[in-house]
Each structure stands twice: as C-alpha cells, then as structure tokens.
Amino acid sequence: MAVRSKSSKAWLNEHVNDHYVHMAQKYGYRARAAYKLLEINEKDKLIKPGMILADLGSAPGSWSQVAAKLVGKNGQVFALDILLMDEIDGVSFIQGDFREDGVLAQFESLLDNRPLDLVICDMAPNMSGNAVTDQAKSFYLCGLALDFAVNHLKKGGNFLVKVFQGTGYQEYLAAMREIFDVVQTRKPEASRNRSSEIYLLGRNKR
Predict the structure, then answer these.
(1) pLDDT band at 67 (very low <50, low <70, confident <90, very high)
(2) Which CATH fold topology does 30-205 show?
C-alpha cells in the first residue's frame, strides 16, 4: 500500500475536520468553495434575482449551484469548464477550453447577444508544484477571464475573479482598474489562511 506523505496526511486531516467541507456535504454543495461565493455575496450583494451571469472554470459546480439559486427562475447561469460538470437546474453548461475559438463561439451562441450582468471566475490551473510556473499559468487564465468580461459584460456590470498574490498581481490589479470604476479585494473566511488566494471584485464596468 502506498505510504502517504506528511503533506498529504496534513491535507487529509484538515479536509476531514474542515467546517466548510461538513457544511457543503450537509447542504448539498459540490465543494466547500460555495461558501466563499456565499460570503462575498452576503457582503457585496452581487447576485440578484433575474440576473444573467457566466461562471468560468465552473467544475465541479458549487459556484454555479449558488448562482442558480440566487438568480432564480427568471435568471440564467452560463457555465464553462474544460472538465465535465454534472447537470445543474438553471445552468447552461459547455465543456471546453474557452481559449479555443470554437468553444468560445459555442458559448457566445448560447448567450445570443445578451450582455452579462456578472462574470464570476474561481478558476485555477493544474498545479505543477513549481511556484513560478504555477503563478504564470494562473495569471494567464485570469487574463483570459478579464478579456471575456470586457467583451461580454454590460456597461455597469461586475467581475469577480480569484487570483494568487505574488508576481503579476499588481499588473493585473492595474489592468482591472482601467476597466472598472472600483476594484476591491476580498478574502472570505472560507478561504484557508495559508492560501495566497484572494478575490478581486471589479465593480461598474465602464
């Protein structure tokens, strides 16, 4: 039998004893990340009934679950991920890589020229363990998400994205400030303290 490393044992122990993992299991969310979005939304009131929004990097679907409940029957959630995501009521999902023109075209056909009220993105690259490489991959994806938001958000729309503090962070923050009237940082309690992840909220697209 394979012997677990100390780090994997620590992660497993943390996961098993994690309050948000237990809450997600109790209330039917697919991942503890649901509580990050719930907490941010409680503070910032981003998601409202009747909204049209896109969830980029949506799998396994906990953010889409939260969003679908909050927009209600008169709203619409569009979700996109390279990984397969099981069906969620009220969510239109496309499996594919939105760096590819064909996937993006399919996604845009679903939107049918409707501008989005909100774009949310909890995406992260597959981590290699090389901090420099992983950070570069992360901001590449964040850059694509920002481009998507620029092209599909309505004027006055909002954008919430996960980033990792480190190389590229200040440049990305500056890029967001060129597009949105206000850019705020959020570190929800559900985000583990040891993680360098932080959420940037761009409000009121110009």
Answers:
(1) very high
(2) Rossmann fold (3.40.50)
